[in-house]
From TrEMBL:
<dbReference type="InterPro" id="IPR004113">
    <property type="entry name" value="FAD-bd_oxidored_4_C"/>
</dbReference>
<dbReference type="GO" id="GO:0010230">
    <property type="term" value="P:alternative respiration"/>
</dbReference>
<dbReference type="GO" id="GO:0046872">
    <property type="term" value="F:metal ion binding"/>
</dbReference>
<keyword id="KW-0479">Metal-binding</keyword>
<dbReference type="Pfam" id="PF01565">
    <property type="entry name" value="FAD_binding_4"/>
</dbReference>
<dbReference type="InterPro" id="IPR016164">
    <property type="entry name" value="FAD-linked_Oxase-like_C"/>
</dbReference>
<dbReference type="GO" id="GO:0009853">
    <property type="term" value="P:photorespiration"/>
</dbReference>
<dbReference type="InterPro" id="IPR016171">
    <property type="entry name" value="Vanillyl_alc_oxidase_C-sub2"/>
</dbReference>
<keyword id="KW-0496">Mitochondrion</keyword>
<feature type="domain" description="FAD-binding PCMH-type">
    <location>
        <begin position="51"/>
        <end position="230"/>
    </location>
</feature>
<dbReference type="GO" id="GO:0006108">
    <property type="term" value="P:malate metabolic process"/>
</dbReference>
<keyword id="KW-0809">Transit peptide</keyword>
<dbReference type="InterPro" id="IPR036318">
    <property type="entry name" value="FAD-bd_PCMH-like_sf"/>
</dbReference>
<keyword id="KW-0862">Zinc</keyword>
<comment type="similarity">
    <text>Belongs to the FAD-binding oxidoreductase/transferase type 4 family.</text>
</comment>
<dbReference type="GO" id="GO:0047545">
    <property type="term" value="F:(S)-2-hydroxyglutarate dehydrogenase activity"/>
</dbReference>
<comment type="function">
    <text>Catalyzes the oxidation of D-2-hydroxyglutarate (D-2-HG) to alpha-ketoglutarate. Also catalyzes the oxidation of other D-2-hydroxyacids, such as D-malate (D-MAL) and D-lactate (D-LAC). Exhibits high activities towards D-2-HG and D-MAL but a very weak activity towards D-LAC.</text>
</comment>
Length: 480
């Protein structure tokens, strides 16, 4: 069979034939069975243009029954399937590796219900995150998660990757805010776990298996999620720090002094700032006259404009006096606030414009979080631009190596070093992006043999023919 890197197409899977296509057309209608080259090529390649599959068919079910029919059929025919949301995933999980059938959730984008008293939203998996945000905004609520890909990513994809993002420091992970899911198993069985309860200790809480399993255990078709009220006073400040240790101390102070109003604590190094300001139109460094090594974006969200502002200003003043911050700007209006956010959220896009990029998404105990960036820089020298940024409030570093083009020699300098380093410091090699194809074989850097063995048993129980997202998440020896 054909090879992609070290992965080989598993011969347990059948190849798509004309009868399969006819069957899909019967259950979905012709227009929802896509074989058009242009549409297929967009769905075959990931956001970074790093992973490319060769699927010949994309299915667009409109409801849960159709998802169930598709999977039941694929399971009986041994056709491999890749579930696809907004295709913004960063680990090669959302695109086929070979000729898997792509099942897109894009047409399942209805809001089912919203309860204004409890703040519980129930919707289909294909709803785009930003659309849910706008819907909630009108109701006086917000989504408990926010991320740079909001314009394209879908709630089903967010749940399937257990996306973290910019508000986790305040509202916690999706394991807390997702109250229920409806999911379809590989054999077509529909699991209705679409609860709208905060508390429900009735047996094993199986919804958690679908949060973060990246489409390897089932297809998420509906989601119920707890949304916080939209509060009236939001403030954003961009701060400059002279070294990493100041950023760390600033975080400690922010948690203490800002307490319940702290809603984001993000950081970027000067290399990230330079990258954004040189590649994105309209992005400029708010401190153009002096070079700082680190920048921290702090957001507060509360219900009392004057006391929130007072609190934030006192915190900023105190941090200036303690020399934790070298300089700072408090956004004066919503436009300035969004220019600060655009810097932070624009890094991924700027990296894309700069060339090829190797992305690592690490959880590392705070004390050592930035050391790996420095070590990587000294390993690679002038061959690459190494940048570090991320969700410092959650101990999550995005280590990115920007290069003119993908280069095996550079990759060999990065891996396995970065995984070994992370493992040695008791970190996680995937904080929030998942394993996908990229890290499926590296899971042992973060999980024990015994743990992976149980994962493997769960996989076989729920998807005995391993048709769901093959070659992803777990080592290829297990999934192929
Ligand atoms: P896809 O990319 O389509 O799929 C992702 C995975 O989920 C795949 O394995 C796919 O098979 C599976 N999947 C998708 N939908 C379903 C479903 N309905 N049922 C079962 N499986 C499914 N991530 C963060 O955690 N935090 C961030 O701050 C963040 N920022 C980002 C910024 C940018 C600019 C970009 C491009 C990405 C960012 N990401 C971030 C990556 C993140 O994983 C995705 O953006 C998002 O959560 C994926 O949603 P999606 O709908 O695009 O899913």
């Amino acid at each position: 069979g054909s090879m992609v890197g070290v992965v080989q197409r598993s011969n347990r899977f059948s190849e798509l034939n004309d009868d399969d296509v006819k069957y899909f057309q019967e259950i979905l209608g012709r227009k929802n069975v896509v074989q058009d080259e242009d549409k297929l090529s967009a769905a075959n390649v990931d956001w970074m243009h790093k992973y490319k599959g060769a699927s010949k068919i994309l299915l667009q079910p409109c409801n849960t029954d159709q998802v169930s029919e598709i999977l039941k059929y694929c399971n009986s025919r041994n056709l491999a399937v890749v579930p696809q949301g907004g295709n913004t995933g960063l680990v090669g999980g959302s695109v086929p590796v070979f000729d898997e059938v792509i099942v897109s959730l894009s047409s399942m984008n209805k809001i089912i219900s919203f309860d204004k008293v409890s703040g519980i939203l129930v919707c289909e998996a294909g709803c785009i995150l930003e659309n849910l945000m706008s819907f909630l905004d009108n109701e006086g609520f917000i989504m408990p998660l926010d991320l740079g890909a909001k314009g394209s990513c879908q709630i089903g994809g967010n749940v399937s990757t257990n996306a973290g993002g910019l508000r986790l420091v305040r509202y916690g992970s999706l394991h807390g805010s997702v109250l229920g899911v409806e999911a379809v198993l590989a054999n077509g069985t529909v699991l209705d776990m679409l609860k709208t309860l905060r508390k429900d200790n009735t047996g094993y809480d199986l919804k958690h298996l679908f949060i973060g399993s990246e489409g390897s255990l089932g297809i998420v078709t509906k989601v119920s999620i707890l949304t916080p009220p939209k509060l009236s006073s939001v403030n954003v400040a961009l701060l400059a720090c002279k070294d990493y240790s100041s950023c760390q101390k600033l975080l400690q102070e922010a948690k203490r002094k800002l307490g319940e109003i702290l809603s984001a604590f993000e950081f970027l190094d000067s290399q990230s700032m330079d990258l954004v300001t040189s590649h994105l139109d309209g992005a400029r460094n708010p401190f153009p006259d002096s070079q700082h090594d680190f920048y921290v974006l702090i957001e507060t969200t509360g219900s009392d404009e004057s006391s929130d502002k007072q609190k934030l200003e006192a915190f900023l003043l105190g941090s200036m006096e303690n020399e934790l911050i070298a300089d700072g700007v408090l956004a004066q209006d919503i436009n300035q606030a969004s220019t600060f956010w655009n810097i932070r959220e624009g890094i991924s896009e700027a990296l894309m414009k700069a060339g090829a990029v190797y992305k690592y998404d690490l959880s590392i105990p705070l004390e050592n979080l930035y050391t790996v960036v420095e070590e990587m820089r000294s390993r690679l020298g002038d061959a690459a631009n190494v940048i570090g940024y991320g969700h410092l409030g959650d101990g999550n570093l995005h280590l990115n190596v920007s290069v003119p083009q993908y280069d095996g020699k550079i990759l060999a300098q990065i891996e396995p070093f970065v995984y070994e380093w992370t493992s040695k410091h008791r970190g996680s090699i995937s904080a929030e992006h998942g394993m996908g194809l990229m890290k499926a074989n590296e899971i042992f850097y973060s999980q024990s043999r015994e743990t992976v063995q149980v994962m493997s048993s769960i996989k076989s129980l729920m998807d005995p023919n391993h048709i769901l997202n093959p070659y992803k998440v777990l080592p290829h020896s297990i999934t192929s």
